[in-house]
Design a protein that fits this description.
Layout: E1 14-17, E2 35-38, H1 41-51, E3 56-59, H2 74-81, E4 85-88, H3 98-106, E5 110-113, H4 153-170, H5 176-201, E6 210-215, H6 219-225, E7 228-234, H7 245-258, E8 262-266, H8 272-281, E9 285-289, H9 304-319
Parallel strand pairs: 1-3, 2-3, 2-4, 4-5, 6-7, 8-9
Helix pairs in contact: 4-5, 5-9, 7-8
Length: 321
């Protein structure tokens, strides 16, 4: 079983976007720099902000990749198993990489699960129940844990310090003082963003703070900012779960009963089901959000901070009036 260390964490500088499975990979490391491999581009951006060039940061998933079914190429798998440290989201988020992550740990790579730094919620939770802190010390994935903690910038601020500590512990060449300073500065940016979003959300009447999404990805955002998630087109935390005709018909009735006016889909996923559901219900807008990947370099979701801000702005614009 996968055994993940929950030691605090942090890494690196130069961002290298690894290509999707089956395509040619770029150079994945250097002989003179320690290499930290990060599974997702969201965490890759965060880690890059924390490290400043003393290590090489390699991102496995490219922009637009679906983390639930992404498969590593042989070269990417080798990079993960030979890294000086490996940072993953955890809680089953990287479904197609679990065997490679396990192999890396068996090979002695220090692995950090970012979700282990925060208090999780259950999949489908509306954010009103308390849950015990995530534990996976014995290598057992906990069923029902929502892996999408990164939709809450306040939780990411907590994870940032854990990542920094992990990297300081595992990478001898890292400048610990610089990393801690970078973590403090990035935490301040995250806290400012959290306040900015709270002010945006305050413009939305409480009765309209209702979310219907493509799949169950915004539970942490909902908990943080007082939304009620009334349904998802794909009723689960993974895009691989699928949606039945019966479930979509039931969701249509829920939408009508709740007076929902907007369905939030994923920028990087097909919106066909969302559009079909909107047509079925009638008078429903489909708005796309960044969910599990950053946007392209020239987009309003190019960095983690940009991504979270853009989502909040789109939600507020859609629901405030």
């Amino acid at each position: 079983m996968l055994q993940i260390r929950h030691t605090p964490v942090l890494v690196a500088a130069v961002v290298l976007f690894a290509s999707a499975c089956g395509a040619e990979d770029p150079e994945l490391g250097t002989e003179n720099q320690p290499t930290v491999v990060v599974t997702t581009n969201i965490l890759g951006d965060v880690v890059t902000n924390l490290t400043g060039g003393t290590v090489k940061v390699v991102e496995i998933m490219p922009v637009g990749a679906d983390p639930h079914d992404f498969r590593a190429s042989a070269r990417q798998a080798d990079a993960m198993r030979s890294a000086d440290a490996l940072i993953v989201n955890g809680a089953g988020f990287e479904e197609g990489l679990l065997d490679v992550i396990e192999g890396a740990e068996i090979d002695g790579v220090a692995v950090f699960e970012a979700i282990g730094a925060v208090t999780p919620i259950a999949l489908g939770d509306d954010g009103h129940d308390d849950h015990d802190a995530y534990e996976n010390h014995n290598g057992h994935e906990q069923e029902g844990i929502d892996p999408h903690f990164f939709t809450d910038p306040a939780r990411m601020a907590v994870a940032v310090h854990a990542i920094a500590d992990f990297l300081i512990d595992e990478i001898d060449e890292i400048d610990a003082v610089a990393v801690k300073s970078a973590a403090e500065a990035y935490q301040a940016e995250l806290e400012a963003l959290d306040e900015e979003i709270a002010n945006l959300i305050a413009l939305i009447p409480q009765a309209r703070r209702v979310l219907v999404t493509n799949h169950e990805v915004f539970g942490y955002f909902a908990e943080r900012y007082g939304f009620d998630v009334v349904g998802a087109i794909i009723p689960g935390g993974s895009t691989t779960d699928g949606a039945s005709a019966g479930a979509l018909a039931a969701l249509a009735e829920t939408i009508r009963g709740a007076g929902v006016t907007v369905i939030f889909a994923d920028v990087s996923s097909p919106t066909d089901l969302a559009q079909t559901l909107a047509t079925e219900v009638g008078d429903i807008e489909v708005v796309t959000l960044y969910s599990e990947s950053l946007g392209e370099a020239n987009s309003d979701g190019a960095t983690y901070l940009d991504m979270i801000r853009a989502n909040a702005e789109r939600i507020a614009a859609a629901l405030a009036s």
